[in-house]
Write a structure and sequence with these properties.
With 59 residues, the chain is mainly α. It has 2 helices and no strands. It has helices spanning 3-29, 35-58.
């Protein structure tokens, strides 16, 4: 391993150590989604998937 890979590995470990507690806190204290929130998320997702399938069929 050269020094760039070692520094990259150390940076990755540092990011995990710093961000994991904050992420756990955010997940624990975040508001829960209602069914209307999930529907408003799923509908655009389905539209995008159908559009991509249409583009694939046209090629």
């Amino acid at each position: 391993m050269d020094w760039v890979q070692i520094i990259s590995a150390l940076a990755l470990v540092m990011f995990i150590v710093v961000l994991f507690p904050a992420t756990r806190h955010m997940m624990k204290n975040s508001p829960k989604g209602t069914s209307s929130d999930w529907i408003s998320f799923v509908i655009p997702l389905v539209v995008i998937v159908l559009f991509i399938l249409l583009l694939v069929k046209l090629v």
